[in-house]
Specification:
mainly alpha; about 325 residues; 11 helices; two-stranded antiparallel sheet
Length: about 325
């Protein structure tokens, strides 16, 4: 609520339609579907990513999943109740179970009904027509009856009862675990840690073998022969440390913008690392030869690139909200 002069104005719920688009995306996703709307843990994890800037709407929708509002709606509609009546009953039950205001409860029920496509139903289906009265299977001709044989009448037996409406969705079932995005982010963290180890190891391994002479025969980034040349190790080691921090941001941060920035950092560092160690790998000329440090460093950069691509793939929820808002 906010004050404007002498009037009290309510802050509208989901003014940009992002919550509506997020629920439609969850229902349409084959990994989640309608059952996710009744799983409070799944809704918490998904809405944390999909609605980072709408904590008020997210908290109400999580409370609705804990109260089983989606199941109440589907149960009422499956019994032939129209959507308006089913929504009113579900909102009343939701309000009695929580300390939320009536407008919050009615908003949550309405947006859940829309996500489940129950709002497309105008009214409950009409009751089936009564069966005809029982009669003989055949009207047997009598002696002296002048009707033709083709005029015999047959009583049609009543057909089977009406089937369940096609628009009723199955009852929601709870799903365990937080879904694919969390597993992908854990994979990004592990791959980035492996890449960091490979990069530091590449700095310690020889990157050049020198033939002939009585002096040194191998050089590495950590041991290049001069005191001041150790500064060349600051770049790859710094890349390894910052990449690990970026991976932790993609795994734990709630802000979609920060995760997008961290993904870009991983991709940029991956390209930079491949190019850096490619210079060490391919600059040696006969009779000198390159050591294993360059190849290991290139491998570390490739692993960073793979981690960045997986981090980008772990953000389907945000992309779904964007596309849902554009189409809705």
């Amino acid at each position: 609520m906010r004050l404007e002069g002498d009037q009290v104005t309510s802050v509208p719920w989901d003014a940009q339609g992002e919550a509506h688009a997020a629920l439609r995306a969850i229902v349409a996703d084959p990994r989640y579907g309608p059952p996710a709307l009744a799983n409070a843990q799944t809704m918490t994890n998904l809405l944390k990513d999909m609605l980072p800037d709408a904590p008020r709407e997210s908290s109400v929708l999580v409370a609705a999943s804990e109260a089983g509002v989606a199941g109440l709606l589907q149960g009422h509609v499956s019994q032939g109740m129209d959507v308006a009546t089913a929504s009113r009953l579900a909102a009343g039950t939701f309000e009695n179970q929580t300390a939320l205001t009536p407008d919050a409860c009615y908003w949550a029920v309405g947006i859940l009904a829309s996500a489940l496509r129950l709002d497309a139903i105008r009214a409950a289906p009409p009751p089936p027509a009564p069966p005809p009265p029982p009669g003989p299977a055949y009207d047997t001709p009598r002696h002296g009856d002048t009707r033709a044989a083709g005029g015999d009448q047959r009583t049609v037996a009543p057909g089977p009862g009406p089937a369940s409406p096609a628009w009723v969705m199955p009852a929601p079932q709870a799903r365990s675990g937080s879904g694919g995005p969390d597993r992908l982010r854990l994979t990004v963290t592990v791959l980035t840690a492996v890449a960091a180890i490979l990069i530091v190891w590449a700095c310690a391994l020889p990157d050049l073998y020198v033939s002939g002479g009585t002096g040194r025969t191998s050089f590495s980034i950590f041991n290049s022969g001069g005191a001041g040349q150790l500064w060349f190790a600051v770049e790859p080691v710094g890349v390894a440390v910052i990449a690990v921090l970026a991976a932790l941001i993609t795994a734990a941060n709630r802000s979609a913008r920060l995760r997008l920035l961290a993904t870009g950092v991983l991709f940029g560092f991956g390209v930079q690392t491949v190019l850096l160690f490619a210079g060490y790998e391919f600059y040696a000329r006969s009779p000198d030869r390159a050591g294993p440090g360059g190849a290991v460093g290139i491998l570390g950069g490739i692993v960073l690139l793979v981690a960045a691509l997986i981090a980008a793939a772990s953000r389907p929820a945000s992309a779904a909200v964007t596309s849902g808002s554009a189409s809705g």
